[in-house]
Amino acid sequence: MSLQSNAIETERLRLRRWESRDREPFARMNRDPRVVEFFPALLAREESDALVDRIEAHFRAHGFGLYAVELRLGQEFIGFAGLSVPAFQARFTPCVEIGWRLAREHWGRGLATEAARAVVGYGFDSLGLDSLVSFTVPANVRSRRVMEKIGMTHDPDDDFDHPSLLEGDPLRRHVLYRLKRPAPDPSAASSA
Question: For the segment 63-92, what is each residue's pLDDT rounded down to a tens digit?
Fold first, then answer.
């Protein structure tokens, strides 16, 4: 992972601030029933654009956020990955959440994991965060697999009902994953 002029680069990806050209492919993603299968609803174009506006406002407020993700080869927008501060209250907040969403045609190639690993490195090494969380509905096996691949752990005692969803909503129950910053390697300090 490298940090290049406010962008995070990996072998195949570039995570960067949003541009106006990202809005149409993002809106297409948010209308794909498979991509938003574990969210309350498909998003209309106006709702998708409003989400981009909220992401940009989060960057201004916190100095970090959900980056637009593009393929380095061809610069095609494929989704987002990054960090956010959840707006709701729960027993584990305040916290910083790591999240991602990719267009369906880019699933199954390890891109979400590659982006998430880069975000973890950025959060711990550049921002100095001590821990990250991520959460989803129990049935979202794809995202849970990414959480596990980047080293997050799940304790069933941490599972919660999402306060933004009404009681009885099948998406209300969420699993919570956690990742703590690795402890410094004492042997690295003694060899310096």
Answer: 999 999 999 999 999 999 999 999 999 999
